[in-house]
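step: validate -> pass
step: tokenize input -> pass
step: predict -> running
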Amino acid sequence: MPEYEYTAITMEGKDVAGKIDAADVGDAISQLRQKKLCPLKVKLVYGMEPTREQKVEYMKRAGRFAQQGRNPFMVFIDRIRGKMRLRAFDKQQEKERRKLLPRKDEIISNTFAILDANLRKASIAQIGGFRPPDDSLCSWFGDVFVCKEGEEWPQWDRVVGKKGVYLTPLGQFNLTEAPYVPEKLKQFKMITVFIDDDYLPFDKAHGHGWIVRAYKSLEDLVPLEKPDVDFEIKPFPMKWELVENEGPSWEDAWGITDLTEYNLVADSEFYDRYQNSEKTKLGGYPALIQGELRFGINDFVFQIGTEEKAGWYWGDCGIGYFGLNDIGEWLFEWTCY
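step: predict -> pass
step: emit ->
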């Protein structure tokens, strides 16, 4: 248990000093008051006490806290308690790290062996930079040319009672052109994606502001009639490039193996070894920005990145992630920096 030095005044007005064992500063003060002492100063033996800046901040806020009916001294003590708990946690982690250091190479090697066995292939989209092919079935970013007979350009009623808005075409992906296709997408030959780019949907079900259309045959597809709308996105033809060994992001790696010991002994080795593309791609691992996906890595099938050439942005250089679960439901979420 931590040891504290203190100075205090007795009920008779005599100055006293000494040391006391306590769980934290608040506990030390409580013990001194039980001994009928008025504490003047309580300090950890290893020297932690409020800085000058903290003391000035305390004095500035004391009046406001008092007006709110809160004891400014106890507010200050609560903040110190929080910092003490954090420091104690850090000290405990350091103890555990020192115990594991003799096995550092073994821990890193075993972790990498597990993660290396779970690397994924991906087809990365190369947007533009070549002459557009004269084939409506080719892969495109920012446009859709085909549909199933009877389908129209998708709309959705953003505001109930008002005329539906036409969704922006994010692209059509001819999966037969891609060098790698995730297992869940192998049943399809073509995928088209549409979204409401004025109000990017968040936490909305399929069909509400975003639509994925998947086709199992190319022979049944017909030209899609375009609405009289000027979409801001700029279309480009796409080609696909194979990547053999995409690694998971740090958050997703925890779902593959327990990284507790590795996290205590390693430095930047993980980020040097495992990388994944933030571009538009089929398969691979999602390039995470704000933590792991709600629908998880097992249902993830493709992502659409921020593509500056086409003028497409998910907020501040974000990414849109698309998944397909085991009952055939399309999943979607997006995040940005």
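step: describe -> The chain has two domains: 3-103, 118-335.
step: cleanup -> pass
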